[in-house]
Amino acid sequence: MDNPLILPIFQYLKQNKGDKPKPNWKVHEILDSLVKENLLPKLDSSPNKDLFKKNFLIMNALYELQSSLPEDKYLQVHSMDIRLFSSTQTQAQLPDPTDPLRDYYLDWSNYDTSEDKIQQLFDQFWLKYSQYVGGTKEGLSYKEALDVFELPEGATQPEIKRKWRKLALKWHPDREEGDKDKFRIYYMAWSTLRAKATQ
Question: How many helices (H) and strands (E) does the chain have?
Fold first, then answer.
């Protein structure tokens, strides 16, 4: 199956930002750019599946691009650190053939993954990301977590999810106005509130 995003993503990675080329990109930056250019429409009625499918297409295109670039170029693919190198730069290296993410995203049977599996993947991502931004094992009580979210005790799960999305988007460390410490606190509260909902 041909991925129509390969060429637009390659053009995006090559473009200059201001006076100097941007040194690296993140998947969400590429996603935002493709959506703004109307190159990535809504792919599923479920918000989680829609986000997953968009990310899948981007990661698939990146890995396909990585293996089809001319010899004087190398594409490093990590969700938080995507870089296009020339062969003269010392950081350039060959793609890792044992990268499990590469195998996953090049297998089109994973594109239409179930809602439960997607939730499990998101949970794993947020756990790893919490550790990346300095998460701790100290927990919050349910009431403390609601207080952090500034929600009343009777808040419903849809209200809690909406609040989490709003806070995560605002304080995510990858955003220009983001704050690593605030994001970590909100993530801890979200972990507590989500765990209670699954009991």
Answer: 8, 4
| DSSP conformation class of 180 | H
Quote the tokens at residue 126.
């947020």
Helix pair 27-36, 47-68: axis angle to 10 deg? 100
Contacts of 184 (CB under 8 A, 6+ apart): 130, 133, 134, 135, 136
| In the predicted structure, residue 110 carries a pLDDT above the cut 70 | yes
Q: What is the per-residue pLDDT across 57-72, written as a single tens digit (0 to 9) for each?
A: 999 999 999 888 877 7
- CA torsion through residues 51, 28, 98, 1, sign: positive
Query: What are the pLDDT digits (tens) for 97-108?
Result: 567 788 889 999
**Calpha distance 3→191 (Å, rounded):** 35
